[in-house]
Amino acid sequence: MSTIKKPSLLQSFLPILVLVGLLIVNVLLVFGDDALGGANQMALLMSAAVAVVIATVNGYSWKETLRGITSSITSALPALIILLLIGALAGTWMLSGVVPAMIYYGLDILNPTIFLFATCLICAIVSIATGSSWTTVATVGIALVGIGDVLGFEKGIIAGAIISGAYFGDKMSPLSDTTNLAPAMAGTDLITHIRYMALTTIPSIIITLIIFLVIGFFYNTSGEVGQINELQTAIASKFNISPWLFLVPVSVIALIVKKIPAIPALFIGSLLGGIFAIIFQPDLLVSLSGETNFFLASYKSVVNAMTTDVAIVTENELVNELLSSGGMNGMLGTIWLIICAMIFGGVMENTGMLKRITQSIIGLAKTTGSLIATTTASCITFNVTASDQYLAIVVPGRMFAEEYKERGLHPKVLSRTLEDSGTVTSALIPWNTCGAYHSGVLGIATGEYFMYCFFNIISPIMTMIFGFLGIKIAKLVKNGKIKKD
């Protein structure tokens, strides 16, 4: 039998250095915004291969390494199932008019005198509904940039308000992929994570909204807002907009409050969306399906919305981009990326490389506050070096999970820290996939808007303040068992 050797610090860092190098090449030199289409997944697999070679040199058999990979992927399976259900829910909520109604009524609160405040709030509402900051920025965000430009606002601060609201919604929505990924990495559940994260996230968004409200009063906000009416008219031309549609998200929220697990809650939410589509949007179902029989039209349209895609065409191009969803199929790219990340993480963890790196870093963190600060710094570092927010959650999550438990901290402390730092700071890095995406979509350079993304800047600071002051730091019960909320 071969003797297994502990990896050296250099060996442990080598796969990460290879990963960072490949990601930089993919994002900055070759693929740009398209790096998530497969190039970054291959970078993860190539880096995992380097880790496998090092593990083999250190005496690990392929079976042992494969066991680690399998265990890593298995731990993420609930999150992957939830992602599929999120795709289905997003499709039926779009088809039923739930999301269009949220946007329609949300636009009514856009008063020119409080434009920045309203912009942040609207983007927060849309992002909570869709679970995606990217979708929010690419749809409502584009329209708001045009409106704000007409009103005389600097483009950088408009983008800051858009991204701040979008990332608040992205963090707090049970539909968000990162909001599902963070608790999966830390070892807690989705609902516990969201409830605990609200302790730092809500104060951060309140401070952000106050800042935008104050800044807004220094601008001349009188101007043309006809574009809003055009958007609402285009939405109303295709959907029967009614406040009754809000019964669907209210029902899902009620299920979550009643502590129904995320998977059945999301499944019920997607079915309710389909039922409300049949009730409120019968003409739309017939036109989308091409069927004359209403039963066949309803079944075909709802199934397509859940599984493949739904796209509602109007005379307004911005609305056309807004009123589309990829269903379960649209989530496969994210699932692919997560599986590749879990393969990389599984090899690194099972062969002791993550532990070796963690030991060298954790030695600097003597207190709970410094441990949270170290985790925050690690997430930001991975956003800067690895150029991907998923890696900024997955790798630090794997690195610090056991240390938090050993220090008697509930896993939700780690999951909150991962999101407060890993998710939100990704939009501030020009070469990160998120920063590059938002800059390209809005046509505003990251350097112009990052200082106005107050929520994204305040969030990691807030989580460190809570850590150093010992505010609401959840503990494990005796014997290291996780206390149920």
Describe the structure using short key phrases.
485 residues, globular, 2 domains, mainly alpha, single chain
Fold and architecture overview:
- With 485 residues, the protein is mainly α.
- 73% of the residues lie in helices and 1% in strands.
- Helix 16 (332-350) crosses helix 19 (389-406) and helix 18 (368-385) packs antiparallel against helix 23.
- The model has no long low-confidence stretch (mean pLDDT 84).
Helix segment tally: 23
Query: How is the biggest beta sheet arranged?
Result: 2 strands, antiparallel
Strand content: under 5%
The geometry reads as globular
Strand and helix order: HHHHHHHHHHHHHHEHEHHHHHHHH
Mean pLDDT: 84
**Strands, total number:** 2
Structural category: mainly alpha
Secondary-structure blueprint of this entry?
Blueprint: H1 9-30, H2 39-57, H3 62-96, H4 98-107, H5 115-130, H6 133-151, H7 155-172, H8 177-186, H9 190-216, H10 226-238, H11 247-257, H12 262-280, H13 282-289, H14 294-307, E1 310-311, H15 317-322, E2 324-325, H16 332-350, H17 353-362, H18 368-385, H19 389-406, H20 411-423, H21 433-442, H22 446-449, H23 454-469
Antiparallel strand pairs: 1-2
Helix pairs in contact: 1-2, 1-17, 2-16, 3-8, 3-12, 3-14, 3-16, 4-5, 4-10, 5-6, 5-7, 5-9, 6-7, 6-21, 7-9, 8-19, 8-20, 9-20, 9-23, 11-12, 13-14, 16-19, 17-19, 18-19, 18-20, 18-23, 19-20, 20-23
